[in-house]
Amino acid sequence: MTLDQLPVLVILIPLLTAPLIVLIRTPAVVRLMAIAAAAASAFCAAMLVARVGEPISYHMGGWTPGIGIELRATKASAFVLALVTGIATVALLLGTRGTRLDVRGTSDRSDATGGQRSREHLYYAAFLTCLVGLCGMVITGDAFNVFVFLEISSLSTYALVAMGPRRRAFSAAFNYLVLGTIGGTFVLIGIGLLYQMTGTLNGPAISARIQEIGDPRTLHVAFGFLFVGFAIKLAVFPLHQWLPNAYAESPSAVSSFLAGTATKVIYFQLIRMCLVVFGADYVFGTLHFGSILGPLSLLGMFAGSLAAIYQLSLKRLLAYSSIGQVGYLTLALSLGTEDGLYAGLLHLGAHGVTKTGLFLLASVIIAHVGTDRLASLNGLGKRMPLVAFLFVVGGIGLIGVPGTAGFVSKWALLQAALAGDHLFLAGAILVSSLLAVMYVWRVVEVMYFREPPERAPLRPGYDWGALAPAGLLLGLSIAVGLYSEPICVYMRSAAAQLFAGGGAP
Amino acid sequence: MIANLWHYGLVVVLMMTGLYIVIAKRNYVKKMMGLAIFQTSVIMLYVTMGKVTGGTPPIFVQNDDGTLTEGIVYSNPLPMVLMLTAIVVGVATMAVGLALVVRIKEAYGTVEDDLVTELNREDEARRHLSAAAQPIKESKS
Q1: CB of B51 within 8 A of CB of B73?
Q2: CA A200 – CA A440 distance, rounded (Å)
Q3: ipTM of the predicted structure?
């Protein structure tokens, strides 16, 4: 009985916990509540992954889809849910010790207006609300719901980013808000035009109507608005300006969370929009979407990775690397084949896990060294050997060295490109991986081949609260790299299900 | 044809006005105003969509004996319901955005984009040049 309620529980648990946290306020209690809520949500998502075969359709309030709102758990969406909730739990664990100093208003060190009163509960409430938005977007089958959840997650993200330790966090959050709102509104316009043409908001129902009405101009416009809206939120190359500042200036726990989840969820929306709502034939056949998305992805891969090479601080470097990695994701989609989609879903998971692990390590480093400037990390390999070693593990995961999850996904992407006779794309993937080698090597060089400074204050002892989750995630990446069979089989069937129209009834 | 579509023209004009203000104006408060106009244009797009020619408000019309009157054309209420949600979202966005503007004013002493960018650049330069002497303290803003 309760098992039937799983799709809604994933959203409901954090949604109900967030206001409770605001009411309870006691820092020690709300921290535990937030972790418990995220973990419970992650548990539900994991159960969904285990149970889902045919798509699970959950009717909100017992109303049939079309009149009421439908939640749809497919193999792919259950996986994305598990990834998002899992990463949220891990990032919340991180927020429990020394790294909290990073968040404005939660430390003893009061800022200009914060006073001494702790505002930690607001941080956790915003965090859980953001989680609700992301999960809701993934699981809902209703187009307007996607917009609502998108805005829920975005609004709480703006607040979270603004909690960063420096004043630059405010301007980063504001710029993100302006661009994000434009993106969200574009999505809303697109949904409106879709509704106008089809008279329904239910994903599969829209899809069925689109096949009937042919190819009117309004559909082109709707697709354009939806794509640009999602592209802004996904940080597809020319629309990526908000991302580096938002990731680099937000508190460490928040950047770990966002880097692994926010863009991934939007990527999943883009996939669903292309394959489930509009249908692969229409998007890649009639609209030639691949020839728009492909070049943008290539530009993103190179521009992001090149910019990462020249960054002076660790978090900013990782943020630019994310833009490059988004390029791989969209490239996989732009191939318009099932193989490409399979590679994209694999890379979504691989990059989410690896990048979160790396950001967690960055936050450990910030907690101990006091800064993430590369110049201050000289000789970190001698001073914090474990952290530096884990960073190298994550770095080779980003590059895609065999034995890591990054390799599994990049290999799938290469195969998909070759299967479609795109030799040029395959070459571009290899060359851009070399750029990844360069930016990872910059960090390695600083950490291992430079002498540590003589007078270097370092907070003693390891922050296991942050190190253990990072080790866990990076270990997971290695484990998947060494034994990828189960996840590959799962992703194959998830991709097949999505490609067949999301298992529409 | 054109006579029936004039409201789309209105929507587009409003939309572009808003978008232009967001992009062209360097003052953060004005940017927020632009965003508000931009979002309002979408509300108009949806609401006009729900209008059915000759439609009455979507409340059941009953005969005297309580049965429903046949043959009544109703306007579509769904877009308006959706817009109630969108209005709430818009208000929340305004609240968060203006709160951020207030904090920017407190932290930078200005809400002009050019000046804030300039100050950010100075912060960054200070962070990377002078911090070598005192690695721990520099993270304080």
Answers
A1: no
A2: 48
A3: 0.88
